[in-house]
Amino acid sequence: MQSRLCDRLGIDFPLFAFSHCRDVIAEVSKAGGFGVLGVVGHTPESVAIELNWLDAHTNGKPYGVDLIVPTSIDGKDGGLTPAEIEARIPPEHKAYVTRILAENGIDTKGLWDQGVPADYGDNLRAAGAIGVLQEALKHPQVKMVVNALGVPPPFMMQMARDKGLLVGALTGAKEHAIRHAEAGVDVLIAAGGEAGGHCGEVATIVLIPEVIDAVKDFPDLFVLAAGGVVTGRQMAACMAMGADGAWCGSVWLTTAEAETNPAVKEKMLAASSRQTVRSRSRTGKYTRQLRSPWTDAWQQPEAPEPLPMPLQGLVSEPALSRIDKLAQSGDPAARKLATYWVGQGVGLMNRPLSTRQVVAEFMEDFAAASERLASFTA
Questions:
Q1: What separation in angstroms does the CA of 127 have from each of 77, 151, 155, 233, 237?
Q2: What angle do CA 144, 145, 146 make, to 5 degrees?
Q3: pLDDT tens track for 315-331
Q4: Between vectors from CA 169 to CA 165 and to CA 173, what angle results, nearest 5°?
Q5: Which end of the chain is more exposed for a tag (fewer CB within 10 A), N or C?
Q6: What is the pTM (predicted TM-score) of this model?
Q7: What are the backbone angles phi and psi of residue 107, rounded to the nearest 5°?
């Protein structure tokens, strides 16, 4: 493909695959796209294991890493003790989660026994992210660093710049896109409200031209389209509007290589595009996820207001981790409650495919859509 971004990164097709699964990343990069490994939650030691594996399994092809260092979170500067963090969690939040599980037939014994880890939330702050990024930048096949929430912090920008890497950032609104551009970001991932995970409210088909128009004074800036994009024809439509490629996350969740909970994968393959919900119930910021009795409970009038990030994770993750484990063992109540981040494109994800098959279908569908579009102007 004749594309500045493809030339810049040394790839054949501007399909960017976000995944926490290294097998997905390797397959996409080997197939001519660009895999981006989500490394939030990793330590420098664990990310070294993942990237060493990728270096050995990508045939020298480039890939990227995605961190989350939000512009605003509770206790942004860190330094709080576990007891101080625990004191910020109102008892009614834990009581409400306990009630959700109990009413849905899940044993709640020992749910809150683990307590608050000493370094909780550090992976979302410079204190934890710097070490992970330092390790990532030791790997020459890493060609792009992305911040998933907010403007990439100065340390991230500088460390990537020193290695000559592209810096990307997700954005859900044109005003955020302008702030990213002014900060010197190279690649904007404009994620519409259809997207899985953290997302804004504006639909992709509106957001893409809005962002492109908003950053027209930054001619070297690349824009990737995200949000509900799970087919090549959607990718072609976004590129017809001016995008330089597509960023996809949800479509890989049902692939053979994905480490998605099998019970959740089964629910995704059967879901319609209306069976997702945008909710703050998991992280404290709005994320789109598969609808279940868990998400429904947080929409009820008696539900407490979700806590700010990262405190809501201390409320939600013990319960969701237990649900996941029970669902994988076949527990019917847990399978009903199980949820995960996924976009509205889930309604088009109804066949179990390998990652390579997904990439191949993207390319074929993109080519067919491009020919169809060209036929109108022939």
A1: 9, 17, 11, 42, 40
A2: 120
A3: 999 999 999 999 999 99
A4: 155
A5: C
A6: 0.94
A7: -65, 130
